[in-house]
Amino acid sequence: LDNEPDLWSSTHPEVHPVPVGYDELVDRNLSYAKMVKSVWPGAEVTGFVSYGWNGYTWLQGAPGSAAKGDFINYYLVKLKAAEVTEGKRLIDYLDLHWYPEAKGGGVRVTTSASTTDVVAARVQAPRSLFDPTYTEVSWITQTLGQPIRLVRRVKDKIAANYPGTRLAFTEWNFGGGGHISGAVATADVLGIFGREGVGLA
Questions:
Q1: In the chain, what is the straight-line distance between the N-terminal and C-terminal CA atoms, in Å?
Q2: Catalytic: 101?
């Protein structure tokens, strides 16, 4: 359902000139999911298709975010309530995008750079998907004050708020597409997704 709605006001200002709000996005997702399920009951639906960390946590500074808290938690609670009301699950996958913010030598790993520092950071960056002992160099870990452990962090939220929701990463890239370090990172990411039970990538 949709694509990176947390960025609509900057990527598509002609259609959505103001930031999308928590309830607007939930309502849009549920409305379209109902339509999909009404014509194809077995279809598996993904949402809300966030671009990244600030989308996950506060919907990129959406109006009312301070009062409503973490957006993923809010979204999952609303989806669970909708299942009770509708008598069926409407959204099957929590769908996120992940472009790491990890840096090596001040350069983000998602670039094509292949300096020693970037390569070292890139091949370690997949550990931020699960490893509670690994703290990457990024603004995210500086903000959190702890390791990201993204897949496990999000799965904890799913377990607490709407068990049975599967996790999807429908866009992700660790950079270095023309360098062996990019291949190593990609292989590691796919292995981690498989081991950690990510449902779709």
A1: 15
A2: no
Express each pLDDT in 41-66 by its tens digit. Answer: 999 999 999 999 999 999 999 999 99
Residue 94 · residue 76 · CB < 8 Å: yes
Neighbour-count burial for 133-147, b at 16+ CB within 10 Å, e otherwise = ebbbbbebbeeeeeb
Look up residue 129 and give its two tokens.
Answer: 């998907």
Q: CA separation (Å) from 126 to 83, 99, 148, 167, 172?
A: 34, 11, 11, 17, 11
Nearest to 7 by CA among 39, 49, 46: 49
pLDDT above 90 (res 2): no
Catalytic residue among 4, 86, 136, 196: 4
Measure the CA angle with vertex 196, ends 195 and 201; round to 5°. Answer: 90
With contact defined as beta carbons under 8 Å apart, do 1 and 27 qualify? no
Task: Give burial (CB, 10 Å; 0-12/13-18/19+) of 63.
Answer: middle
Query: Under a CB-based contact definition with an 8 Å cutoff, are residues 2 and 36 in contact?
Result: no
**d(Cα 73, Cα 170) in Å, to the nearest integer?**
20
* Rounded mean pLDDT, 178-198: 98
CB atoms within 10 A of CB 47: 24
User: Are the C-beta atoms of residues 186 and 100 closer than 8 Å to each other?
Assistant: no
What is the pTM assigned to this prediction? 0.96
